[in-house]
Amino acid sequence: MLQQTAIQFGLKPGDYFPENELGERIHVHPADLRAFSAKFNQLCQDSEEPLLPAFAAKHVSPLTFSCFSLALWTANNLNTFIQDACQYCILIGSPIRLKRHITPQGNSEVWVINHDPYNDKSKVSDLGFMMYIATLIEMIQQASGGIDNLVLKIGRWPFSPQQQQQFEKMMRCKIETGSPIITISFPNDVEAIKLKGRDPDIYSVAVPPLRQAVSKLEQHDIILLIYKLLDTEPNLKIISREKIAATMLVSVRTLNRRLAALGTSYRQVLEQYKQEKALLLLSQPNINLTDIAFRLGFADLSSFSRAFKSWTGYSPTHFL
User: Fold this and answer.
1) DSSP three-state, residue 153
2) pTM of the predicted structure, to 2 decimals
3) Which of 14, 54, 55, 213 could disulfide-link to 134, CB 3.0 to 4.6 Å?
4) Distance CA 17, CA 295 (A)
5) Mean pLDDT of the chain
6) Distances 76 to 64, 86, 94, 135, 198 between C-alpha atoms, Å
7) Per-residue pLDDT at 288 exceeds 70
């Protein structure tokens, strides 16, 4: 996709992504991912086009991400597309996860969550997120034949209002700012939206290797393993890294070393988990803020409110 975009802007693809560095998607070390990101950002800079990631997204096809994109394109309806995109997203961008969510009004949403410990919310991550989100939206639009009432909810738009209008036109979506979490919002009848390329035979062949690959990756995804253990706890106040390590049958030292190799720590993982859990609980109907504070291990509601504002920039009542 990026090679084609470089050519589109009169640049030489080999200056950024040499042929001998290209290959099938593999689970790379964070340092390799950052090196690739540096080349990507250099390409964006040299093109002098702030929305270059959106132009790159236009080059996505059913075979861009092998079985992953092929399964999404050949699914029966948009509902299955969304479910599979969230279930198998680890295969195309492990720091970024997709989470399916149904609002109290019955609308379908996809939450885009960044687990990258190196994300400093700079212009670099803005470009990376734009690339990921624009590609996902373009896949949705191509596979469905076009959805006019797609909404992208974000905290802020990092570029000019004119570029926002250009992005909305290119992606055929509406952007709403002020959201504490990046969200793609769909119409509530996603099961009724049949995909243009639906093919049960191809879909049935594409899905099994996805399941196998995801299962293998999840066995070695230490952050995901910690999340699953935290999900079993009724109150995070009583959880500790010692208990997590013991449940995983490793020492605390080994746990710390494995997290440090990813550029993160147990405390950072726990904070990220609390943020995601808070957003999920706050989206439920008839929710009690005090109960959420207790569930997440905070001493009182005011402590939870301060933490939530530090995570998202908004108070829990604003989110509600």
Assistant:
1) strand
2) 0.82
3) 54
4) 47
5) 86
6) 19, 16, 26, 20, 5
7) yes
Q: What is the DSSP-derived secondary structure letter of residue 19?
A: G
CA 270 to chain centre: 18
pLDDT at 126: 75
Three-class SS state of 273: helix
Q: How many CA atoms lie within 13 A of 132 on its CB side?
A: 26
Amino acid at position 182, single letter: I
pLDDT of res. 217: 79
Closest CA to 77 of 200, 171, 207, 201: 200
Structure tokens at 62: 């059913």
At residue 142, does pLDDT exceed 50?
yes
Nearest to 320 by CA among 188, 179, 187: 179
Q: How far apart are CA 94 and CA 270, in angstroms?
A: 18
Which residues partner with 113 through β-bridges?
97
Contact 78, 195 (CB under 8 A): yes
What is the pairing mode between strands 108-114 and 174-177? unpaired
**Which of 67, 184, 66 shows the shortest CA–CA distance to 134?**
184
